[in-house]
Amino acid sequence: MVDQEIIRAIDLFPTSDLTESTLMESRENSAKMLPQTDIAQQFPVTFEERAVPSYFGGPDIRIEIIKPREPKYNQMPLYYSIHGGGMVMGSPVGDRQGNAALAAQHGFCCVSVYYRLAPEHTQPSQLQDCYSGLKWCIEHAGELAIDTQKVAVAGSSAGAGLAAGLALYIRDQKEFDIHHLRLRSPMLDDRTSISPEHPYAGEFVWTKGSNYFGWKSVLGHEPGQEGTSEYYVPARAKSLAGLPPTYISIGSIDLFIDEALMFAKQLAFDGVLVELHVFPGYHHLAPMFPNAHFSLEGAKSSEYALLKALDLL
């Protein structure tokens, strides 16, 4: 069932469940996989790292800021991205090239956040870090030359789950607004990790066992317990009304297929403009193959959705 254009990933990265004993090695291996190029040499952009304060009394938060060298706008749209890694690994380095391309081609100010990882830090650490990084950008809009009426929040995998939870928190805090939500292969529901095995999804790359480890690590308790905040587990939200236009993409054999479909259904039911793409035979590492047919289709459709939501077409 795996799309032949992306089947090589299964041999390159043999699937095994992530555990506490393998976490450090997995972090090191994933860091080695990330491109180490200087994006300011590769693209006509500037690159800056900043440490910004937490609004919750926590430690300062690192963010990366990528801007076009020759801005298209006096006030740039803001693209705020949250990296993946199952809540327990990863960094913004993996998003640098995509963010630099977005800045160069469409004039965005792209900001990525280094949120604290589990299991060393449990929720609400991740929510607080992601919110603080974005709120700092909004409060320093003049300094960054960004337009606070054109703000997109995006994430992949765990980053998409954090982005959705952040969007719910922003909706309820009412301090500022976001205008687009981009979710790729979103990790939205802790209950997937304790549900019966899916007959066709979740066999490759990110497995049910790894998902259980990720959710238990970030929640600090067994997945599936009642009373868990929707800001940590967005699939538990009673209503998604008030979220901005949302774009969701997912592979048909990705472990998160069911929760992505249910989230899209709930968005539509709650009156949120939602665009959903299910790519046949795509697993969780499909983005490793950007020139594969459905990767190209996804890049095209997600770019259009982003520009349309921010009135940049």
UniProtKB/TrEMBL annotation:
The keyword Iron does not apply. Keywords: Hydrolase. The keyword Hydrolase applies. Coiled coil: none annotated. GO terms for molecular function: hydrolase activity. InterPro entries: AB_hydrolase_3, AB_hydrolase_fold, GDXG_lipolytic_enzyme. Residues 82-285 form the Alpha/beta hydrolase fold-3 domain. This is Esterase. It comes from Paenibacillus albilobatus. The lineage of its organism: Bacteria, Bacillati, Bacillota, Bacilli, Bacillales. The gene is aes.
